Amino acid sequence: MTSTVTATTSRTRAEAASPRRRSWAPYLLISASVAVLLLGMGYPVIWQVVTSFQKYGAMQQLGGKAPDFVWFDNYIAIATNSTFWGVAFRSIAFCIITAVITIVIGVLLALLMSKVPGAVRLILQIALLLAWAMPVIAAMTVWIWLFDRRSGVINYLLSLIPGVDMTGFNWIGTTPVLFFLVAGLIVTWMSVPFVAFSAYAGLTQVNGEVVEASQLDGAGAWQRFRFIIFPVLKPIIAIVLLLNLIWDLRVFAQITLLQDAGPKSTDYDLLGTYIYKTGVAGFDYGGGAAMSIFVLALTIAISWFYVRSLVKEEAR
């Protein structure tokens, strides 16, 4: 018995003294994905960084002349461009408002799905899935028709209210506030299903016995949500909020299609459409690249808060 214990102890000490064997299999398995990411995303980012330091216009795009390095001139130009900063602040406000509203509606729908009978929940899930899966072009065609000032359903339904006449009212081209109200409604409608499904998946991890016990102890609906449900949903809400902030900051197709049906002024631009008009339509690829790097830096800054919280949780 003593010899067995001694042998086991010696083996344990030898294993502790020897370096731990490292398995390279996980690294080999993810190497292909990392390579695709580096090629698919790394090269465009490097190209954008290099171009942001160049005077890159139509002649350079056609290959007639090599681009000249102007170093920080493009960044100085956008830093002193009041129109760009107006668009930037408008985009930040738009993404924060739409993301918060999307999270609230999505969580409420998830709570609703957890309470309704199975048949109603299935119908609601199918409706959300169809809204989420609908192509952007098809969805925007329907939404533009709904808000059309000549034959739109929204104006028709509002005109049925006694004392209200919305005939010919232009939702898209009257003021920027109404334009972004419609745009925010569309973006929220497209994003809510993802949040609702994510939050509903998180609700399945809530301990039903704990919720029932708290209800028997007299806890109200808000108290049950705050102290039992929300702590479980908090990590999910954090990641979907981050994703929605990033997506809504870079929204492009919805704004472009609304502008095609209405005004095209910079007062109706967000960062995505303004960069496109400057870089592609305006043949100022250097300035557009500098603006894109600004959006990239802003996205990293937004993501940093979530990454830092993950690091703190891992440290605990």
Automatic annotation (TrEMBL):
Localization of this protein: Cell membrane
GO terms for cellular component: plasma membrane
SUPFAM superfamilies attached to this UniProt entry: MetI-like (SSF161098)
Membrane topology per record: Multi-pass membrane protein
Transmembrane segments: 27-49, 69-87, 94-116, 122-146, 153-172, 178-203, 224-247, 285-307
A GO BP entry: transmembrane transport
InterPro entries, alphabetized: MetI-like, MetI-like_sf, UgpAE/MalFG_permease
Domain ABC transmembrane type-1: from-to ranges: 88-306
Protein's UniProt keywords contain Nucleus: no
Highest rank taxon of the organism: Bacteria
DNA repair among keywords: no
PROSITE patterns: ABC_TM1
Keyword annotations from UniProtKB, A to Z: Cell membrane, Membrane, Transmembrane, Transmembrane helix, Transport
A Pfam family the protein falls into: BPD_transp_1
Family designation: Belongs to the binding-protein-dependent transport system permease family.
Designated name of the protein: N,N'-diacetylchitobiose transport system permease protein
